[in-house]
Amino acid sequence: MTWKAWLDGHAYDLETLGELFRAGDPLVAEDIPDGYYLKSSAMQDSNGQPDHNAAEALVRRVNGVGRVADEDFRPVHLVGRYTTPDGKTSVVVSGDTAEVRSRARVGTVLIDGVPVPQPPPKGPRYVALAAQHPDVADALRVLGQPGPLDWYDIYKAWEIVEHAVGGWRQVVAQGWTTRVDIERLTASANHPGISGDEARHARQPGAPGPNRIMTLREADGLVRRLVANWIESQHSY
After folding, report:
1. What is the number of structural domains in the chain?
2. DSSP per-residue letters across 208-231
3. pLDDT in tens, 24-41
4. Is 58 a member of any domain?
5. Which residues pair with 108 in a beta bridge?
6. How far apart (Å, rounded) are the C-alpha atoms in residues 112 and 87?
7. Residue closest to 137 by CA, chosen among 75, 57, 194
8. DSSP β-bridge partners for residue 37
9. In sequence order, which residues have a C-beta less than 8 Å from that of residue 11 and are 6 or more positions away?
10. Cis status of the peptide bond prior to 134, with omega within 30 of 0
C-alpha cells in the first residue's frame, strides 16, 4: 500500500514536478479534479501508515530537484492530506493567492510519424543519488527549503559543489562557470559593501568595484546551474 500525499503550490511548479517525477519512486502526478499528489514508499512507517516527518523530508528533497532543474521553480508544500488506496482521507484545508505563470509542456516528438520515447525523468534519479551521496543530499536540502534563497543558502550550495569537485579551479575546468563569476558570487555573498545587511559578513576590507557585483537573482540562477551540472556529472548513477 502506497499513500498519496497531496501537494499545494502554483500550477507552474506542480507541473514542473509532474514532469520531473512523472515515473518511478517518488512519483508526482495529477489526479483531476483533486490536484497533484506525491507518492512514495519512503513516506510510510513500519506499520504502513503515513509518516508526515518523512513526507516533509522527501518534499524538501523533491523541491531541491525542482530548483536545480528550473530557475523559475518555487517550492511546493504538503497540505497534510493523505489518501489510502481505499479512498479514506485526512484533510487539512489551506489556501493561497492567485498568480499567473505558465510553462511550455513537452509534446510528443515524432520521426516519420513514429513517437520518439522520452528519456526517463530526472527527479527519481536525483533523489536516488541523494540517498547514496551525502553531498547531493545536502545540496538538495539547501535548495529545497520553502522560502527564497538568501546569500547564506546560496553560499552553502556553492561550498558543497566546490568541495565535492575539489576546488573552484575544477569547477572552472569543467566549463560550468568562469573564475570571474565565482569571484563575483563570493564577493557579493560576503561583502556588506555590496549586499548590505544580507551579506554573510559584517565587515570586509576594501571597497568593492563594480566588476565584483552580482545580484541575488543572478547568484540564485548561477548556483542552481552549478548544482545541476555537478549532479549530471555523477555518471555512476
Report:
1. 2
2. PPGGG---HHHHHHHHHHHHHHHH
3. 999 999 998 889 999 999
4. yes
5. none
6. 43
7. 57
8. 6, 29
9. 101
10. no
Range of the domain at 219: 148-232
Look at residue 77 and tell me whether its pLDDT is greater than 90. yes
Residue 41 located in a structural domain: yes
DSSP 8-state assignment for residue 102: -
**Residue 137 lies inside a defined structural domain of this protein:** no
The 8-class DSSP code of residue 44 comes to B
- Long-range (24+ apart) CB contacts under 8 A made by 70-73 are 70/16, 71/220, 71/221, 71/224, 71/225, 72/12, 72/101, 72/103, 73/12, 73/13, 73/16
Q: How far is CA 175 from CA 37, 170, 171, in A?
A: 37, 9, 7
Q: Determine the Cα–Cα distance for residues 158 and 125; give it in Å rounded to an integer.
A: 21
H or E, element range at 78 = strand 77-83
218: pLDDT strictly greater than 90: yes
Residues 90 and 166 in one domain: no
Handedness of CA 178, 235, 131, 77 (dihedral sign): positive
On whether both 79 and 161 belong to a single domain, the answer is no
What digits encode the pLDDT tens for the residues 46-57?
Answer: 888 888 899 999
Report the Cα–Cα distance between both ends of the chain, in Å, rounded: 27
DSSP string for residues in 54-77: HHHHHHHHHHHHHHHH-TT----E
Our CA angle for 19, 25, 27, nearest 5°, is 35
Q: Residue 223 is placed in which grid cell?
A: 548556483
Contacts (Cβ under 8 Å, ≥6 apart) of 196: none
Residue 103 vs residue 73, higher pLDDT: 73
CB-based contacts of 219: which residues, under 8 Å, 6+ apart? 151, 154, 185, 188, 189
Region 107-127: mean pLDDT is 71
